Amino acid sequence: MRQRLLKIFDILLETFGERHWWPGETALEVIVGAVLTQNTSWKNVEKAIASLKSSGLMDVDRLYEVEDAILAQHIRSSGYYNLKTARLKNIINVIHDEYGSSIEQLRNNGTNKLREKLLGIKGIGEETADSILLYALEKPVFVIDAYTKRFLAGHGLYDGPYRYADMQAFFMDSLPSDTYLFNEYHALIVALCQSHCLKRAPRCTDCPLKNQ
DNA sequence: CACCAGGCAAGTA
DNA sequence: TACTTGCATGGT
Questions:
Q1: If you ran DSSP here, which 8-state letter would residue A78 be given?
Q2: Most distant CA atoms of chain A, gap in Å
Q3: CA dist A89 to A97, A108, A124, A179, A190, Å?
Q4: Running along chain A, 212 residues long, what does each successive block of 10 average in pLDDT?
Q5: Protein footprint on strand C: which nucleotides are under 7 Å from a CB?
Q6: Which of A37, A104, A134, A158 could form a disulfide with A152 if both were Cys (CB 3.0 to 4.6 A apart)?
Q7: Looking at the domain A27-136, which fold is it?
């Protein structure tokens, strides 16, 4: 399975090129985006992030201080804004109180310990935690999301249960543990899904992988 | 008008 | 353990 997955990776890389994910300039931006994009299109999240940046709020201490109602207005476009205000505050509070507002200090922890810490924060589930670990903190963790699920369902590679832990284990047990590979692979799956064949289709009939 | 988008937690059985 | 529901905006 490793060779098959690596072959697919090569084809996707050849087809779409390096994706340079996550689309965020700083680790904090990635963390904020990971929360805001929960069940929400990235387009709507971009507006919220732009609003936070232009008002100087994209900073751990500024986010820690800002009133909930103000923060909610800035992230309005990303939907569920009251819920997401609370979720952002929850993770910002932890970074502020337990890591001196320093993303670098966060990064200096082991992957397992960090994952447990993140999952303990209300509003941070497996996908959000893993997105933060991989894309913001550069830990070798494979992210499972709606795209990854669609990819697995559409290519006859996988017949296990469609549960997060099982799908993640499928990739992580098959591939070498490498941050670059996990980052690029997930981003390429998204590119594939957004390009054509898997867009809303349960099965892939015409795509770069049709002969794989 | 209906449906969807890079989830999560709380409630129910 | 395995469903179901609320949360909300913006695009198609």
A1: G
A2: 54
A3: 12, 22, 11, 28, 28
A4: 96 94 94 98 98 98 98 98 98 98 98 98 98 98 95 89 96 98 97 74 65 73
A5: 2, 7-11
A6: A158
A7: Endonuclease III; domain 1 (1.10.340)
Would you give the distance in Å from CA A170 to the centre of its chain? 18
Q: Which residues have CB under 8 Å from A203's CB, separation 6+?
A: A153, A154
Write out which nucleotides of chain B lie closer than 7 A to a protein Cβ.
4-10
Q: Which residue has the tokens 């894309």?
A: A135
Closest Cα to residue A212, out of A166, A154, A169?
A154
In chain A, domain spans: 2-20+142-195, 27-136
Cα separation values, A45 from A11, A42, A87, A142, A165, Å:
30, 5, 15, 22, 27
pLDDT of residue A154: 82
A137 CB-near residues (< 8 Å, 6+ apart): A27, A103, A106, A107, A114
Question: How many other C-beta atoms lie within 10 A of the C-beta of residue A153?
Answer: 17
Which two tokens mark A139?
Answer: 């830990």
Q: Which of A108, A70, A110, A112 is nearest to A89 (CA)?
A: A70
Which pLDDT belongs to residue A126?
98
Nearest nucleotide from residue A22 CA, by C1' atom: B6
Q: Which two tokens stand for residue A140?
A: 């070798």
Query: CA at A146, C1' at B6: how many angstroms apart?
Result: 7
pLDDT of residue A172: 98
